[in-house]
Specification:
Length: 254
């Protein structure tokens, strides 16, 4: 079995951490960035990020690295390493099918790298780590969905401008909720219709599978994956043993 992208990343980090490039650049950064000046090296900075400490100080250090990362990839690499525990949690909670593990990690890391190199420090200087992880989640969901429907590519920019999904009225108009999730790229139109038909309208999975010429298990797994993405979009906990019903069964009549 070939190693996952994250495995390669972790293996290479040990070499980069003790390499001459990062050591020399970190010394230079300490001279010009007050938020980094108290750290002996990158390893000490990472220990600070992962341990207890004032959030304001962590934000300041991350912002300093993110500004540097616009022109220095090695600074972005330090941010990526700082984010790795959070990225692992996202991957672990998002993954449904083990066969999609490599695809998920590739998408997650590509999105993380893009956001690190372009993070708007001036506009979003607080809760930086949480913002980065949320951006990665949204971008990864949009990217994976787009890969499955290339004729209807989702816009990462539009997704980032959406109001926080935690503010959605879950027990209100289910049609509107699913439409918003589809527009955001969290679901495809087919996935939204699958949830609506089987969870709200009461059509059994077996009946729908027969009408579509699919196996029951295939359709069940499709719905599970879709519901997990919908739960993430809504900001709700995602069960590890299969998706529960993500919203009220009372459909609002239009």
């Amino acid at each position: 079995m070939s190693p996952l992208p994250v495995d390669v990343l972790e293996r290479d980090w040990q070499r980069e951490l003790h390499g001459p490039l990062l050591s020399s650049r970190f010394r230079a950064w300490r001279e010009v960035e007050p938020a980094l000046s108290r750290f002996k090296d990158a390893a000490a900075l990472l220990r600070f990020f992962r341990g207890p400490g004032p959030n304001a100080d962590k934000d300041a250090a991350l912002c300093a690295l993110l500004v540097l990362a616009r022109g220095e990839p090695i600074a972005g690499r330090v941010v990526m390493e700082a984010m790795l525990p959070g990225l692992k949690k996202l991957a672990g909670r998002t993954l449904v099918d083990a066969r999609e593990r490599e695809e998920l990690w590739s998408a997650l890391m590509a999105c993380a790298w893009e956001r690190i190199r372009s993070y708007p420090v001036e506009r979003r200087p607080r809760k930086v780590a949480a913002n980065l992880l949320l951006d990665c989640l949204r971008g990864t969901l949009a990217g994976l969905t787009s890969a499955r429907r290339p004729s209807q590519l989702a816009s990462f920019a539009a997704l980032g401008e959406l109001e926080s999904p935690r503010n959605c009225e879950v027990d209100g108009d289910v049609d509107a909720l699913l439409a918003q999730a589809t527009t955001a790229g969290a679901l495809t139109h087919d996935e939204a219709e699958l949830i609506l038909t089987t969870r709200i309208d009461g059509t059994s999975l077996g009946e729908l599978a027969r009408s579509r010429g699919l196996s029951f298990d295939t359709l069940k797994h499709r719905r599970q994956r879709a519901e997990r993405r919908l739960l993430f979009f809504l900001g709700r906990p995602v069960p590890q043993g299969g998706a529960r019903r993500p919203f009220s069964a009372a459909r609002v009549a239009g």
